[in-house]
Write a structure and sequence with these properties.
146 residues; endopeptidase fold (from Nostoc punctiforme); 8 strands; six-stranded antiparallel sheet; alpha+beta; 4 helices
Length: 146
Amino acid sequence: MLKKIIAALSIAAIFSTVAPTMGEAAASPQTKAISAAKTQLGVPYRWGGMTSKGFDCSGLVKYSYSKAGKTLPRTAAEMYKKGTRVSNLSPGDLMFFAPNKAARPTHVSIYMGSGKMIHAASSKGVSIASTSNTYWKPKYIGAKRI
């Protein structure tokens, strides 16, 4: 009986040290980027910001994807030239916004799923917003999958 208990405890100890790293290895870059962005919730907006002291929209996206092992350009307009255009959003897709439909994108966010996006807004800093938000929805010009 004692041998069975020791064996069970040994197996539990092995899984407790291995299981967390197994989950991390299985996480996609998109999932990792969303997780990285979430750790920055509440960080203030800072034009040109790319650190935890302050982010602008593209700085947050670039930072989050770099934590996931992906290199992105610096600005929303440059990011818009990358990836594959998608109409059915999946978590991790980049959403782009412009002041009018013909303009180049001036804002970018990361789609989180369930109609939510995470971004750095000048009014709220790093925050989560609804994709149907009355301010952002009419400015939406498309999404890209990285």
